[in-house]
Each structure stands twice: as structure tokens, then as C-alpha cells.
Amino acid sequence: MNASFGRLANNTIGVFCLIFMVSPLVLVVLFSFGSSSLMTFPLPGVTLGWYDALLARDDFWSALENSAIITGSVGLFSTVIGTCAAMVIARLRPTLSAAAFFLFGLPMMLPPLVLALALLSLFSVLGIKLSLVTVILAHLTFTMPFVILIVTARLRDFDYAVIDSARDLGASPLVTFFTVTFPLIRPTLFGAALIAMALSLDDFVITFFLIGGGNTLPTLVWGMLRTGLDPSINALGTLILLFTVGCSAAALKLTGYRG
């Protein structure tokens, strides 16, 4: 009896937690299709007008271009650099590996506001003008730790005998990587890149501090909110949500995550 009651209580709490976390996202999607400018129930009708209004905005396209440049660059560079770091960390002794994980993971553990202020101070001291480049560099600091963790976890179970065999047969380190290592860890690398891209696209605080001028999609949402509650904001939020969830789902599939 007590066991059954405990399971029922746990399931009930789990359902309520799930509803609490998911319902705001569902509302964003629903109101993006509502025909009324008032975000209330019941919806008077269904329309794609708010998406048309969003696509008609010039600042949306410039923000989309900036987000694409930043997200694509972060996905590429974080994967390349993070993979190189992971290949070294995976073959270190446990004590050195733990120290390396701690140092690389520091930006991931810092509050975004603190990290943004630190990077802003650094760029100011170095005399680097704020631009998309500074945003990309900043995003690399907190996305690379995720790539390193994911790739290192894959390399822990890697059979290094195949690499040694390739080297014994005369293959250079570069040839060995592209013909042996890369094909075996390719799904993990693509998954890590997608996670880095999702994190980069979703970031607001660091981007807001370091972009200097212009907008990305998250900062455009902030700007639109300051001028009023326009349902086209929900349309933009839905697009960001679809991309983020899509990248995360594809990444989990590619990396073989099983919970």
C-alpha cells in the first residue's frame, strides 16, 4: 500500500513538473498562430499573419544573418578546437585529466553575466572593438567545454590499437585521423557541433554585452519586448525554439545518448 502510494505521488509530482516546464513553451507556439493581438484564451482564430509580419521586418533578416554567422562559426570552431583538446585529454593520466576538465569547464560553470563582464573587460583592455568576432570568441568559451566533454566521453571507449596499426603501416597522424579516427567518431562530432550551435543561438546575456551593434535573434526579441507585447515575438520565439530543440534532438540521436 505504501509502495503504491509512493509511486503514485512520484508520478503525480513528475507530471506536474513536466506541465510546469513545458506549458510556457506550448503557449508561445499557440499564441504565435492566434489571430488576435491579445494573448488570451480562447483563441478567436488561427492565422499565419504574425509570421508574415515578422518576415516583413528588415531587422529580422539582419538579425537572422548575424545569428547564422555566429552559430555556424561557433559550431565549426568549437568542434575543431574542442576535438583537438579532447584527443589530448583522453590519453592523460586520471589526475591530469581531471585538472584539465576543471580548467576547461570553468566558463561553463560561471554565471553568464559574470562571464560577459569578464570578457568585456578583457576585450576593452586589449583594445578589441566589439563586433560579431568578439561574440564568436565569447561563445567559444562556453560551448567548447560541452564539446570537450562529449568527445572525451566517446574517446574513453575508443580502441587506440587501430590508430597504432595505421601508424605502423606508415600513415601520418593527419592521414590516420581522417581515415581511421574521424569516421569512427563522426556522429559524436556532429552531435557535439549541433549542441554548440544550439547553445550559441540561444544565448542572450553574453551576446548583448559583446555584440557592439546590430542584433541577433535573441537580442531582437529583447528589443521587440521593450516596444510592446507584439504576437510576432511569439512567432520569432517559436522559430528559435524549433531550431534549438531540433539541434538538441539531432545531437542526442547522433551521440547515442541513452539517459
Write up what this structure looks like.
The protein contains 11 helices and no strands. The protein is globular. The protein has one domain: MetI-like (MetI-like fold, Orthogonal Bundle). Helix 1 packs across helix 11.
Structural class estimated from helices and strands = mainly alpha
CATH topology: MetI-like fold
Report strand %: under 5%
The overall pLDDT, averaged over residues, is 82
**What is the overall silhouette?**
globular
Rg from C-alpha positions? 22 Å
Number of strands: 0
Order of helical and strand elements: HHHHHHHHHHH
Contiguous runs where pLDDT drops below 50 for at least 5 residues: none
Question: Helicity range of the residues?
Answer: over 70%
The number of domains is 1
Q: How many H/I helical runs? A: 11
Write the layout of secondary structure elements.
Elements: H1 2-32, H2 49-55, H3 58-89, H4 94-109, H5 112-126, H6 132-156, H7 161-168, H8 173-202, H9 205-210, H10 217-226, H11 232-255
Helix pairs in contact: 1-11, 2-11, 3-6, 3-8, 4-6, 6-8, 7-8, 8-11, 10-11
Which features characterize this protein?
259 residues, MetI-like fold, 11 helices, 0% strand
